[in-house]
Design goal:
The structure holds two protein chains of two kinds. By secondary structure, chain A is mainly α. Chain A contains five helices and two strands. A two-stranded antiparallel sheet of chain A has the order 1-2. In chain A, a hairpin with a 2-residue loop joins strand 1 and strand 2. Chain B is an alpha+beta fold. In chain B, about 15% of the residues lie in helices and about 35% in strands. Chain B has one helix spanning about 1-20; strands spanning about 40-50, 50-55, 65-70, 80-85, 90-95, 105-110, 125. The mean pLDDT of chain B is about 85. Classes of the chains: A mainly alpha, B alpha+beta. The interface of A and B includes residues 121, 135 and 138 of A.
């Protein structure tokens, strides 16, 4: 590592650790760590959860639950919307085949009608599969959203979470340090 | 009790809204082609003294208003004749080439009043001696 790059890196590390930097003024003791606790109000958390499941839980410290809800709901929405788009595509194709089938009634032949009928049946099967998929995932997404609402409105979903384990800064001798703190309620 | 009812209403309302928004009321149209017209059966061709006679049987005359006879040669070229009376069971053909060595594949199918062509019969092959 060259001296040109190592000097800024050293200064950055010293500043990050709050240690005195040679040549800097020592007028007031450096503020090594600042812990700010800005609790989010319950109504705001409920509003966020209303916007998207899991957001209210996340901002109030329920990280596991909030993350699981955001990820699960996003996945469910993606599958739901994809299968919904598939359903619409199959529906349009089925309508085209249906028009063709009905046109064949006058001047068409049995062979053409039979081929078109088989294509329509295949498309209808695809349509039913897409419908089942979108209903399943739509219901799951709606269920998760409803549970999310119940969680933030009636359960303790947006009560501030107290973490059992945390990393907290501690003064260790003359230098700065970090302590792993466990709380037992 | 009110809270519980509200929860049930929230979940049921969401499910009902989704069910209405995602209804699958698409149905196939009525099948009109299966069984509408029967295929002619027992198609035979007889060449006697330069006259070709084709005979057949119809299992049922339901919806039949006419018949189409198809003659296909070895090159794939097709010549058709229309029999206007659907109750006929024979047709005399005297315009196609019946030179020695000629081969014709003969098929028939029924036609209804809308002009829909029914299923084709089994092929009968005529080889001119």
């Amino acid at each position: 590592m060259t001296s040109r790059t190592s000097l800024p890196l050293t200064l950055f590390l010293l500043l990050a650790l709050g240690l005195p930097v040679p040549g800097m003024s020592q007028e007031r003791p450096p503020k090594r760590f600042e812990i700010r606790n800005e609790p989010v109000g319950k109504s705001r958390a409920q509003f966020l959860s209303g916007l998207y499941p899991g957001l209210g839980q996340l901002v109030t410290g329920h990280r596991d639950k909030g993350t699981a809800m955001v990820v699960a709901h996003t996945g469910l929405l993606v599958v739901w919307l994809t299968s919904h788009a598939d359903y619409n595509t199959h529906e349009e194709q089925l309508a085209l085949y249906e028009d063709r089938y009905l046109d064949l009634q006058e001047g068409g032949s049995f062979q053409e009608a039979e081929e078109t009928w088989q294509l329509m049946r295949e498309r209808k099967d695809d349509l039913d599969r897409s419908h089942l998929l979108r209903m399943t995932f739509g219901l799951l997404a709606a269920g998760l959203y409803s549970y999310n609402l119940v969680d933030v409105l009636w359960l303790d979903g947006v009560e501030p979470a107290s973490s059992a384990l945390s990393l907290e800064p501690r003064r260790l001798g003359d230098g700065a340090g970090v302590a792993l703190v466990a709380r037992f309620d | 009790m009110t809270d519980r009812l509200t929860r049930i209403l929230v979940v049921a309302g969401g499910a009902a809204l989704l069910a209405v928004a995602c209804s699958n009321d698409v149905e196939l149209p009525t099948n009109y082609h299966d069984g509408r017209l029967a295929a002619p059966e027992q198609v035979t061709s007889n060449l006697t003294d330069g006259t070709l006679t084709i005979e057949w049987q119809m299992p049922t005359l339901e919806n039949v208003t006419g018949l189409v006879l198809s003659f296909t040669d070895t090159t794939g070229a097709e010549t058709t004749r229309f029999v206007e009376d659907g109750t006929n069971t024979s047709y005399v053909e005297n315009t196609i080439s019946l030179d020695s060595g000629a081969t014709w594949v003969i098929r028939l199918w029924a036609v209804d009043d809308l002009g829909f062509f029914g299923p084709r019969s089994a092929a009968d092959t005529l080889m001119v001696p």
